[in-house]
Amino acid sequence: MKRLALLGLIAVFVLGVAASASAADIKASGQYRIEAVNQSNWDLVEKGDADGSNWGKTNDQEDFNIWMRVRAQFDFIANENLKGVLATEIGSNAWGESAVFDLGSSPVAIEVRRAYVDFKWPDTKVGIRAGYMGLSLPAAIGGGSMILDEEVSALTVTSPITDNVSVLAGYARALSGTATHRANHDSYDLGVLAVPLDFDGVKLTPFLMYGFAEYDAVAESATPAWERGLLTLNGTQAATSKSTWWAGLAFEMTMFDPFVVKADLNYGSVDSPG
What we know:
12-stranded antiparallel β-sheet; 3 helices; 12% helix; globular
């Protein structure tokens, strides 16, 4: 065990020396978005005072807000085949919001949006990406998949097969539960396979995703949104393992341009024994 630990330390030290010996080009980009919104009774539910007076005369919303979001991305480019990406985000928050954009306050809610390594296998078109990244299942409509379109810790490999056919294979760990990673069986793993087909006037992308959640995964999750989208609408079976899968097809036809036909076909199932 001590020898393995020592070898690991040496490996890290060697990698660190190699990294410091070669300078990387840094490319910075960003996006600042500011918008003003004036609205009244946005949720169509008017509310009065807590004691019941003025019921129906006022609502619980600000009529005017200015929203702001700041994104910055840094590409650390070692060479044409290797780069690291770090993306940060502040917001979206409203001007004057406590501890973010209020008077005299320095924003403390700086989030790491993405952090991954992008590697292209030398002399090939095979791309490998690993880290915390954006991962979306194929979708032709709406700009993102209704099943999965989110940042996640993952490893993906992409490669062309022919001029018209390529493949994407990936593995993602959506959840690993507690910080010790030993107390419970609470991991949730996903495997993804997509085959984009691109012909003159027609694009087809069939895909398949399989997931397995250990029996404590739902109970350990602090974000019910992905539970509803990826595991189950019924949280009463949290103490059971779950096998999940989805299959679909993203379709786009442009051969009759300017008339464009798009369609998304998605189907999935959750098997929760016990």
